[in-house]
Amino acid sequence: MPFKIVNKQVLDEGVKRIDILAPNIARKIRPGQFVSVCPEENDEHIPLTVTSSDPERGHISLIFPELGQTTRKLGNLPINESVFSILGPLGLPATIQKKGAVVCIANGMGIAQVLPICRAFKDQGNRVIGIIGAKTKKALILEPQMRLACHALLIATNDGSFERRGLATDILEDFLGQNKVDLVYAIGAVDMMRKVCAMTAARGIETLVRLNPVMVDCMGMCGSCRVKVGGEMVLACVEGPEFDGHKVDFNDLEIRMNAYEEPQEWGNRRSKPKPPRSEPKTLAKFLSGIRKS
Ligand code: FES
Known about the structure:
Layout: E1 5-12, E2 15-21, H1 23-28, E3 34-38, E4 46-54, E5 59-65, H2 69-76, E6 85-90, E7 101-107, H3 110-123, E8 127-134, H4 143-149, E9 152-157, E10 164-165, H5 168-178, E11 183-187, H6 190-203, E12 206-210, E13 226-229, E14 232-235, H7 236-239, E15 242-244, H8 250-258, H9 282-292
Parallel strand pairs: 7-8, 7-11, 8-9, 9-10, 11-12
Antiparallel strand pairs: 1-2, 2-5, 3-4, 3-6, 4-5, 12-15, 13-14
């Protein structure tokens, strides 16, 4: 049966991991790419990063917060049930090269996206330092997997319930002051990525970011994922989602993302999810966002 759910796990309240049988995608997907998932016929498609893949067994793993009607529906599908459709791999793979010392920094759900990138940098022979942050220890996901994927892992929690109190960027600032770093890779909230890029630009350190704008068709046709990079509008779904962080206009990205009333799936997760309510289709949200801007 195509796209059968073979495993499920609750990582945190409202955060699920599902493993799906998708042999063609598992064989082709590269770190940094994503898929577009439609849980049931006539549902909207949602873009989700593939956190890991097992080409031999034909499985892909998706980790996602249940923030909207579609992600909740996906999270509620039982093991052995099938997902209606999965399109992918989509987007360009992450740029993985031998650089030397590579810092991968992520917060919130961005940790699920940075994990395959850490693994790939390590496999290329880099020394990988992971820096991850979450609001609380309970909200911190994938810590054991990140420890395996990195040579060293530094953790910050906002409330100090685990490791260092504060933000992942506080750790990065200290780390950059004491160590030579060849590349920084950042994924997460817009504020965090903007701060990281300001720090690394001041030190002349190459920085890549993975952006998570709203995506509708994920194939370069709707224009919803436009982001300004190097003064030009580009489409994150086909020309990204990875970009040179020092060229990204984060203010423009923030304005575009704030045009949508619903919280974003990745990176900008609110501390308290809104109560369930009927969710307009993504295209309707996109059009209403345009009217507001
Ligand atoms: Fe439609 Fe990128 S999601 S153009």
